[in-house]
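#lab-general

N.A. 3:47 PM
ok so I finally got the sequence cleaned up, no stray characters, all 329 residues accounted for. can someone with queue access submit it? mine expired

B.Y. 3:52 PM
send it over

N.A. 3:53 PM
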Amino acid sequence: MNTFKLSALDLATVRKGQSVQDAIDRTVEAAQYIEDLGYERIWLAEHHNMEHIASSATAVLIGHVAGKTTRIRVGSGGVMLPNHSPLVVAEQFGTLETLYPGRIDLGLGRAPGTDQITAMALRRNNLNTSFYFRDDILALQRYFENDDPTEKVRAFPGEGLDIPIYILGSSTDSAHLAAELGLPYAFAAHFAPAMFTQAAAIYKEKFKPSKYLDKPYFIACVNIVAGESTAEAKFLSTSLFNIFAGIITNHRRPLSPPTEKVIYDGIPEIERAVYGMTACTFIGDKETIAGEVSSFVKSYKIDEIMTTNYIFDPGKRLASFKIIKEALN
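B.Y. 4:20 PM
back already:
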């Protein structure tokens, strides 16, 4: 029996020929479905200035998904903290936790979740906010934990609420910070696997127990495409690889139907770049997923696997979630 938890990451990706509303409805459908399957949590990711991603107002979408479900934890994977005032984040997530007690997670990242021009618009031309990531996390914790009625600035709602904070990252810097602060750590291996091995080792070796966590808690976010057969899974996975090719070439497209060959077939530079971004991708039938993902978890002592799902067909998308659950638990 595997002991690690299983969760999902969603970006409310817009499918070809459909609308933003359709994408949000699809996210809700996935959340309800995996809740019934017994997944631990679903996280929504903050992105900006991306035409085919509908999760930019992350806290609003978290509230919508939490309101349409009953048990599954719902959170941010993550809120890009340098884009926001810690006080505003404390108030937003304090409100969410008040509305949906015991179900809200606050995952925090340092990247802008967009391009540099958009980051300047978000941060009002102050790109130095990323250098205060650690300080902003500590400020957030103080808002949640404050018990001094004379404090000049307080977070309502937020104060006195137990909202778990997770550090998100794709580099060794985030691993060091999560270890130093004694917080759970989620690594974005689904698109930036290059430093995964090193970051995992640093986090576990450097971890300092805290009042939040007595031992390391490590989440690996990866791409998993499961099908009734490995051949079907490989076919379905072309939608995922074609999206990454669009990111690399700056020709972003909506989530599109699978293709017989990836759209960059025969272009070595793009092939290498896509492989570099998707090295932590598992594709296959139930037996293949069970073997490969379980081995991955054992090798890196992972506490929780968080899977993406970029399958175009609605029925195949939900079936993949079920196959993954059956394979891993």
